[in-house]
Structure formats: C-alpha cells, structure tokens
Specification:
Quinone Oxidoreductase, Chain A, domain 1; Rossmann fold; 2 domains; 7-stranded mixed sheet; 6-stranded parallel sheet
Length: about 350
C-alpha cells in the first residue's frame, strides 16, 4: 500500500510498502487523515533537526486517525468499522522511567516517524498501518477524521499545561502561535486561565489564535513595544508558555512575567543563552515540556465531548498524492496553520 517516504531533504516519495500481519493484540487500520507536524517539516526541509538526521528512507507522520479493518484474536473493545485516533507513542512499559510513570522519557521509546533511533521508527503517513490495540482511542460519532488526527498536538499542549500546574484564575502568555501555540490557548482556557495573550511575528496564526479563545493577540514584528505595558509592577503574567523555540521570544517576555512566575518551554530550536541574573532575581521556575502520555486519552475525550473546537485551526486538506504542495503550504505561516492529508 502507498506510504509517504522521505529519502533526503525535499525528496518525499509515494512508495509501496508492505503491511505486516496482525498479531493477537493488534489492529489493522485504514488511515484516513493525517496532520503535518513541525517535525515532519524539519525532515522534509532539512533532513532532520538538531543532531537527528535521516540515515535511511523513513515513512513520515505521527498525527493520524482512521478506521479499523481487522482486529487480532485477543483484542477486546474494538472491531472492524470502529473509527479511532492513533497514539503514535509506544513506550516499553518496563524501563525505570515507565515504571515511575514518566513514559514520555522511556529508554526504549518507539515514536512514529522518528529518526532518533536506528533503524528509524517508520511513521503513519500510509494508507494502512498495524498498531497495538493500546494505541487506539475511539472517536465519537460526528467527530471528523481530521479532528481525530489533531489529538496528538492537543496532547502536547495538555502536557505542557500539566507541567505548569494549576491555571485557574491565572494570566497566561503564549509566545509563538503555530499549531501547538494555538492549542496551548485552548488548553489553558480549559484549565481555567482568565487571561490569555498570544504573540507572534505573523498575522495569520494570530487571527486563528483569536478564533480559539485568545483574549489578545500581539504582532511583535509590527508592534515590538506592545508587551511593555504588561511589565508594570514587575510583570502581569503568572505563566509563560514559550512555543516558538526562539530565544528572543523567551527572554523578551521576562519583563512581563511576575516574580515567581512559571516558564514552560515547549518550542524546540537552537541552544539558548539565558539571562540567569533575571531568572534568579525574579525567582522564575523554568520547566521543560516534552511530548505526553496520559494526556492523549484526555485530548480524545475533550474532542469527543465537544469541549474543544479544533476546526478553526485547519487551513487545508489535500490528498496525500499531492504531498509536495501540502508540505509547501504547511511551511508557509502566512497562509496556513494546520494542513491535513487525506488518505482516503
């Protein structure tokens, strides 16, 4: 069956790959929708990110949803015809971090579409995939395949919100408004934040952030001084979610963050040099947020219950056969937020 295989930067091909046999506790799933993620773009544009590089052909993709075509003999609760979101994370369950409940730090993690290990973990941008039943989460009637595919980035945002601690009544600043930044707005609002302000350098993502609940959006390219008013009395915001991976976005928000404010770094970029004197003097808590675990189930529950609306974030849906155009569109922040691939 068809799959999207990356060979080198810019070299993305539709190729025929084999579907393995279904084991007793596995499901064969017809993939119907997939979301292009920032990591997919890094593989497509640069061949990887940081020290991670493609060393062999790899099927891309980890944000997918589809319909079950075959269930293994030991599977309970799922049957052919059921629609599911697929969790791309497969921790081993046995290492010290899995045993501590830190499955996102698993020592033997297999995460779809990742070149972090060799052989690479093949991804889910394919017409058919075999998954463990533990990776399947039922989608409710009326929920689109595209919404199901966005459970993964929503889970990333939910994990970041969990890392921040209680947000009830808090003032939140989000710097960087790609899909994760926009979903941080949604997640922070669901967690009880009473003020959510978003910054970015591009108008289009800011408009979409406003549609999903941001109280105020600031284009720092056009109005670089706009955050200054939040710096009165040592800062207005309780929590900063930094989603751009840009050191200037991070440190530029420090004046607006109150003493003992919490910084959750979500975006990945290059190495950063931080103003330690400011971090010490204002007693900031600096926390990382990496992937997710139990938050995937919460993301699907929120989507199924209609408690979050992700539809305003979808910019376009294109056929997987038109992947080159889809990836180019996804990389253009002036036009797109989340681009979905149709595998049906």
């Amino acid at each position: 069956m068809d799959a999207l295989v990356i060979h080198a930067p810019g070299d993305l091909r539709v190729e025929d790959v084999a579907t393995p046999q279904v084991g007793p506790d596995q499901l064969r799933v017809r993939v119907r929708a997939g979301g292009i993620c920032g990591s997919d773009l890094h593989y497509f544009q640069h061949g990887g990110f940081g020290t991670v590089r493609i060393k062999e052909p790899m099927v891309l993709g980890h944000e997918v949803a589809g319909v079950i075509e075959e269930a293994g003999s030991a599977v309970r609760g799922f049957a052919p015809g059921h629609r599911i979101a697929i969790c791309p994370s497969r921790p081993c369950g046995a290492c010290r971090y899995c045993q501590l409940g830190l499955q996102n730090h698993c020592l033997d993690m297999r995460y779809y579409g990742s070149a972090m290990r060799m052989p690479h973990v093949q991804g889910a941008f394919r017409k058919e995939i075999v998954v463990d039943s533990s990776q399947a989460y039922a989608l409710a009637e009326g929920i689109s395949d595209g919404e199901g595919a966005m459970a993964e980035p929503l889970a990333v945002a939910l994990h970041a919100v969990n890392r921040a601690g209680p947000l009830l009544g808090k003032a939140v600043l989000v710097t960087g408004c790609g899909p994760i930044g926009a979903m941080l707005v949604i997640a922070a609002r669901r967690a009880g934040a009473t003020l959510v302000v978003v910054t970015d350098q591009v108008a289009q993502p800011l408009r979409r952030a406003a549609k999903v609940g941001a109280d105020e959006t600031i284009n720092v390219a056009e109005h670089p001084e706009a955050l200054a008013r939040f710096g009165a009395e040592k800062g207005r915001f309780d929590v900063l979610f930094e989603a751009s991976g840009n050191v200037h976005a991070l440190t530029g928000a420090f004046d607006a963050l109150r003493p003992r404010g919490i910084v959750v770094q979500v975006g990945l970029g290059g190495e950063m040099t931080l103003p330690i004197n400011t971090i010490v003097a204002k007693e900031f808590d600096l926390r990382g947020a990496f992937r997710f675990h139990q938050e995937f189930a919460t993301a699907v529950d929120l989507i199924n219950a209609g408690l979050v609306d992700l539809k305003p974030l979808v910019s376009a849906t294109l056929s997987y056969r038109d992947a080159g155009r889809a990836f180019a569109l996804a990389a253009d922040r002036t036009q797109s937020m989340k681009v979905l691939l149709d595998f049906d």
